[in-house]
Amino acid sequence: MGYQLIIVGPLETNCYLYFCEDTRACAIIDPGAEAERIFPLVTQLSLKPVIILNTHGHVDHIGANVEVKERYRIQIALHAADLPMLEESIQLEFGLMLGAKPSPPPDRLLADGEEIKIGQTSLRVIHTPGHTPGSVCFYTEGILFAGDTLFCGGVGRTDLPGGSWKQLAESLRSRVLTLPDDTVVLPGHGPKTTIGEEKESNPFLE
Q1: Which of 34, 33, 36, 42 is nearest to 4 (CA)?
Q2: Which end of the chain is more exposed for a tag (fewer CB within 10 A), N or C?
Q3: Chain segment 76-119, per-residue pLDDT in tens
């Protein structure tokens, strides 16, 4: 397996292409904006997109869903708890400011613990509510696509609608920090880190 990072949109969202090196099957994780920057890299790497995976429903993570779906005719997957966000007027208005487009409803609802096959590899869904009710991380051995749950030196905001510091703290304690210390954390914004580094130095985890 392999992955490629593309930073998209004015909020510099990390969009990831996660792919099987043998089959070139690919998941597009959080296409938040600028689909025109995502498409050339898919072609350049000879990838075959099979699914769009959203870590949560905020507009800066779903803003290019519609263009990617139309281009590759693939499913969008999101946790059911974030479905209401797709219709919120404040999100739609904010999306217009960011150059994002409203997302179609998901074709597939993500469930905690399910394995999503990507060619000969897979990603496990870990439901991590707190930043949003339906926030999820995607885990494969050695790598965690963390969305806006955990950052290098920080954690996701909980002051937005649907956010909960109590839920986020519990998600981090019981679902994220229990992963091996050498797990590489690929967050929704900013540089990558590891579980071990965050345990040692992240002020929000004390």
Answers
A1: 42
A2: C
A3: 999 999 999 887 766 767 767 777 788 999 999 999 999 999 99
Domain that holds residue 153: 2-205
Q: Is 181 left (phi over 0), alpha (psi -120 to 50) or beta?
A: alpha
pLDDT above 90: percentage of residues in the chain? 89
- Cα–Cα distance, 21 to 3 (Å, whole number): 9
Burial class (CB in 10 A: 0-12, 13-18, 19+), 141: exposed
Count other C-beta atoms under 10 Å from residue 90's C-beta: 11
Q: Structural domain tally of the chain?
A: 1
Using only C-alpha atoms, the chain has a radius of gyration, in whole angstroms, of 16
pTM of the model: 0.96
Q: Are 66 and 104 in contact (CB under 8 A)?
A: yes
Query: What is the distance between the alpha carbons of residues 153 and 10, in angstroms, rounded to a whole number?
Result: 21
| pLDDT tens digits, 123-150 | 999 999 999 999 999 999 999 999 999 9
CATH number, domain with residue 24: 3.60.15.10
Bridge-based pairing of strands 48-53 and 25-29 is: parallel
Quote the pLDDT of residue 130: 98
- In angstroms, the CA 191 to CA 14 distance is 9
What is the pLDDT, as a whole number, of residue 87?
79
